[in-house]
Amino acid sequence: MTAMDDRTRVDSDSGTGDGGGVSSDLYTYDLAPTKKEGRRWGAYNVFTLWANDVHSLGNYAFAIGLFALGLNVWGILAAFALASVLLFLLLTLSGFMGHKTGVPFPVMGRMAFGIRGAKVPAVVRGAVAIAWFGIQTYLASSVLSALLVALFPGLHALEKHSVLGQSTLGWLTFLALWVLQVLIVSYGMQMIRRYMAFAAPTTLITMLALAVWMFVKADGSIAFSIPDPLSGGAMWLQILQGAALWVVIYGTFVLNFCDFTRSAKDRGSIIRGNVIGIPVNMLFFAVIVIVLSGAQLKLNGHVITSTTDIVRTIPNTFLLAFASLALIALTIAVNLLANFVAPIYALIDLFPRRLDFRKAGLVSAVIGLAILPWNLYNSPVVVNYFLGGLGALLGPLFGVIMADYWLLRKSRVNVPDLYTDDARGEYHYRRGYNPRAIAAFVPSAALAVVVALAPFFHAAAGFSWFIGAFIAAVLYAVIADRSRQIQDVDGESIAVAAE
Question: CA–CA separation, 264 vs 282, rounded Å?
């Protein structure tokens, strides 16, 4: 069967373990497992995921905020060292699942939640991603607007009029970046992989150059803390909260990392890419943050809140343009891998007969535009309660899925049965839903949301993801049905070529 044949027809006669043939409601080219032969993602490709995502504008704002909150140099390094160890473990476990099965996240969730119930975690993950896709595109368009006004002052006139909360120039820059991302995604995962491979070294070189420029400008020294830094118990609490929140930022990614590792050549590629991309790269990131924050504080006593504060101070127009364009390219890369791929697979899973990768990408982008993300970003209530509440659900989802795969199944998966709606299928459960997974998820999710949003639990809010994940994993491990037969069958009989 050729790749074109894979895209246009479903082989309903494929063997599926104990179940019948694959169902057209569950199996499409984009949702199918990838063939083991021909997978192209090596250690460098895995590394580029983190080289781009770690150095995002939002992450710099968060990390620089730790300095502003009172952590000294060693406190920031400790927070990121702890976070990197936790993330390496979580992402490696999640990545191995993708490599073993070759399936994307909406299909992976069928193991624990059932062939129908898995749509819930896919939709939650996709909804969070679509909102942040729009917000990140808006942030990148703001940088582009500022750059254009700096280069062509006459464009400032386009910022005087507003339509639906956005200026004329803002609309033009937002739509330009929106179209660019849609074009990249329209060429599939292979083009996303190539774009990230290009953006990663550009990002690292730019941020390193910016840090060196600031260090030299500060006469080769930096401030190691704000004048009144945290100490004692308050310092250690902030270190733990900083590390926990950093992991929470990647709570989305640890769920759908399999969307990328399903194309990984081997486990070694995942491990090597994660080692360089997470512990090594995150400590490099922490050093950049320390230099930028400490140098700026030493220069004028001002505590910066984001890298754009520094970019705006660059006196050379060429360097300003280069730095701004690099930050825009970085934000697009982050959007593609963290906020575009997940909703694409979720939409395909919801409408398998109507959508493919390209069409789902367009639908996702249109929704990201229709929600007017600049209004979302400027509303603390929406960001904190809607996105914060949805984000808190990701921990319990992760806990149930990990407990099911690693503790109950011990990494044994009947891949063909993930695509059959036959009642004899291993993941049919009760009408396609696993009531025990739902019973573990609902109370742990409710608790996670309360801890994340209720003012009374403010001190523990940063740990809501861990609390939800741990309780959900324990509950599921206790109530899971161990009487069911567990088979280990690969998906090569129904697999398609990896991109």
Answer: 22
